[in-house]
Amino acid sequence: MVTSATGGLSPETREQVLKELTDLRAQRAQNTPRLGEADKAGDSADQADALEAHEVAARLDRRIAELEALLEHGPSSHLLADGTVVTLRFSDGEEETFRVVTFPGDAPDLLTSDSPLGLALVGRKAGDEIRYRTPRGEATATVVSLKAPH
To answer: What number does CATH give the domain 85-147?
Structure first.
């Protein structure tokens, strides 16, 4: 169990998780009446609606459970810590610096810990060459620096 007050998440990430959790719970509450109506399905169109309502509820329930576990237990110990700063040199010579996050965000300098690139960085140090999958195939980069959060 994670003992820190933030559950091993940065304050920004924790806030994002809590916001998504609130939104998902509201969506789930809105979907609940549809489930009751769906169970009384008559014709095939009604049955299709019923199936869709149950699938939506199941998807919402899964994501809610994932977020609750993240808040309770923190990110997996098999991932880079939330807030780690990593600088990489890509095969074209360009260097980029990223902040590792557990929860995806919109900023271009964020790297999710469970992405192919994030996973390739686990256990690495400056000077290591990494390989990871992209939509265009395998790519490589060199770790210039990797700084864990304080």
So the answer is: 3.10.50.30
